Amino acid sequence: MTESDSSRRRIVVNDRMQQGYSYQLSAGAGRNFDPDFCPELTPKEMLALGVFGGKYMTDCRDEFPESWFRDAKLSPQGHDPALNYFGVSASTALSVWRAKGWIHPDDPRGWFQWYCRYYMGRRLPDEDRRQIGRWKAFARHTAQVRRHCEPGDPFCRPRQRQALLQWAYDSRRI
């Protein structure tokens, strides 16, 4: 299959949170990102580093490349903050995200699900703009870590550093 064929593939999702949802890939994986969206980490890198207490992607592996999960730190039994890179919980409950209106119906798991699908090549112009705007706004946390921590001190503001990892900012480099 050529890259152009693979970028036009239809994905059908059937997992615990979505049944019968499908989407079309219109870009190659990891390509043709909006110029305002420059994540420092790929979904595969994020999963290998340890994000979301290992619980986030345990029932939807069929949707994404197997290679993403080879080194992923996952916890099918439940959220385990020890699996996170900084060993702390930096997550907010999905119920809070729903209550605040941050969840789009196409991505019931939230921002990371959107990013994984965007990375794979799905494009939803209005939702992409919204999520990229949220990602850009989260960058303020990098400034706070820089302002309050010595460079390279991973023990300073670990929750904030973990949250940055969960938004594809590589807080290990701050």
Task: List the keywords.
174 residues, mainly alpha, two-stranded antiparallel sheet, 6% strand
How does this structure look, described?
- By secondary structure, this protein is mainly alpha-helical.
- The chain is built from seven helices and two strands.
- It has helices at 3-6, 43-49, 94-99, 111-120, 125-138, 140-148, 158-165, and strands at residues 10-14, 19-24.
Please list the strands of the largest sheet in the order they lie side by side: 1-2
Contiguous uncertain segments of 5+ residues:
none
Largest sheet: 2 strands, antiparallel
Per DSSP, the total helix count is: 7
Gyration radius from CA atoms, angstroms: 16 Å
Q: Indicate the mean pLDDT.
A: 92
Secondary structure elements and pairings:
Elements: H1 3-6, E1 10-14, E2 19-24, H2 43-49, H3 94-99, H4 111-120, H5 125-138, H6 140-148, H7 158-165
Antiparallel strand pairs: 1-2
Care to give the gist of this entry?
Helix content is 33%, strand content 6%. It has 174 residues and is mostly helical. Strand 1 (10-14) and strand 2 (19-24) form a beta hairpin.
